[in-house]
Design brief:
Elements lengths: L30 H8 L17 E7 L4 H6 L5 H5 L4 H4 L4 E2 L6 H10 L3 H4 L5 E3 L6 E3 L9 H4 L5 H7 L3 E6 L7 H6 L4 E4 L3 H12 L5 E7 L1 H9 L4 H18 L6 E6 L5 E2 L7 E3 L4 H4 L2 E7 L2 E6 L4 H12 L3 E5 H6 L9 H4 L5 E5 L4 E3 L5 H4 L3 E2 L5 H4 E2 L2 E4 L1
Parallel strand pairs: 1-7, 1-8, 5-6, 5-7, 10-15
Antiparallel strand pairs: 2-17, 3-4, 8-18, 9-16, 11-12, 12-14, 13-14
Length: 396
């Protein structure tokens, strides 16, 4: 959709209407600190009061399994949906992913126990203030020294130092990635190729000590959603498979264990037409004054040419403001989108303008992001379909 300057524009969405994640009481960043606090790890806070302590805790993170998608596909996931009433300590409620609701951000929040404004991975891509380049924080390209980028210890590291047996069980391809090192390292990493192998080994690791903190992960549901959409047979087939995996792990829990099944974000399918997919690369109004376009289609960081920040904000509000929450950097910070506190090193990584999708709409960039622009399923924003994720519980 190409906009012209003389078209009338509806009133922009009020920033106060954006459903800010439940940082500090019910977000992904609060899960591991709550579990670790229950095991006596120093410095940890039980931020989610509904959770009951256990000696052995396992977190199974299913990439892309949103609360709303699970609720809409009960037939494909009978075991998981049977646990929905036990979500979040028996309240039957989900937790929130955090903003943006995307994998690199969420995994960093899970592993560090910190919101994005502190761990410093604030989007799929974000500007590196030291180089002026966009950095892909999932693929870690271009290369950036990991520890200065995310200097905080993970919860696994702190648990290990406190005498808790900490382990991660995932695909071998993730063992040495920078994202794993800054977000999920600590204790021991165990690479296994199949989902069944991961479930079996996670149960073994959980039983390996009197106090254990184990994390395991499955990625393929998310990949199916991106390629084919959450309405596809392929996605539903993957959901059936992860349902069996979760049940396999639950049936092997050793005594005094709690299993928490969660996700990093939900997902929405976006139709392939001009009303739903706005192409930044073909829209002269949106491009004006923009030096770099970061983030992803439903959660954009917009970096303006020096001196053009206010003009870019005004234009983006006029063009997109009825379908996106469009905020300046300082407005997004004040609203708490990235958490209650922003570290100094993180401030300039955030866009001069931050745009979060409200409607079923996508801001693609067909030339500079051809692969991402072709995806059916998308995520990143603060809508319930993207933000709400389960925290299903099984105890032994």
């Amino acid at each position: 959709m190409v906009h012209t300057a003389w078209e009338p524009h509806p009133e922009p969405l009020a920033l106060a209407s954006a459903p800010v994640p439940e940082y500090g009481s019910g977000s992904l960043a609060d899960v591991l600190p709550t579990l670790a606090a229950g095991m006596g790890v120093p410095g940890m806070t039980a931020a989610i009061p509904e959770l009951t302590p256990a000696d052995r805790n396992c977190v199974f993170l299913i990439d892309g399994l949103g609360w709303e998608q699970l609720r809409a596909h009960r037939d494909e996931a009978p075991f998981l949906t049977s646990l929905m009433a036990a979500s979040r300590g028996g309240t039957g409620r989900p937790v929130t992913a955090g903003y943006p609701a995307t994998t690199a951000v969420s995994l960093a929040s899970v592993g560090t126990g910190l919101p994005p404004g502190r761990h410093g991975l604030p989007g799929y891509t974000a500007r590196n203030p030291a180089t002026g380049e966009l950095m892909n924080q999932l693929r870690w390209q271009p290369w950036t020294p990991p520890r200065p980028w995310q200097p905080y210890p993970t919860v696994f590291q702190q648990a290990h130092e406190a005498g808790v047996h900490a382990a991660q069980v995932s695909s071998p391809t993730f063992q040495n990635t920078p994202l794993t090192k800054v977000a999920l390292s600590g204790g021991t990493f165990h690479g296994r190729l199949t989902g069944e192998e991961r479930m079996d080994l996670a149960a073994e690791q959980l039983a390996a000590a009197d106090r254990s903190l184990v994390y395991t992960y499955y990625a393929e549901l998310d990949g199916s959603g991106h390629r084919y959409g959450v309405a596809s047979d392929t996605w539903r087939g993957q959901l059936m498979y992860v349902d069996r995996l979760a049940q396999r792990l639950a049936e092997q829990l050793p005594p005094r264990s709690a299993l928490y099944i969660t996700a990093d974000h939900g997902m929405v399918d976006i139709p392939f037409d001009e009303d739903h997919r706005i192409d930044f690369d073909e829209d002269w109004e949106l491009r004006a004054g923009v030096a770099l376009l970061g983030g992803e289609g439903r959660a954009r960081h917009v970096y303006a040419v020096s001196g053009a920040e206010n003009d870019v904000l005004t234009c983006w509000r006029e063009v997109l403001g009825d379908r996106f929450w469009v905020a300046s950097r300082d407005e997004a910070i004040a609203a708490g989108w990235f958490g209650p506190h922003i570290d100094d090193r993180v401030y300039a990584r955030l866009g001069d303008v931050v745009a979060a999708a409200h409607d079923d709409v996508l801001l693609i960039a067909s030339e500079r992001e051809p692969n991402e622009s072709a995806m059916v399923g998308n995520h990143g924003s603060m809508t319930p379909a993207e933000q709400l994720v389960p925290l299903l519980e099984v105890r032994s």
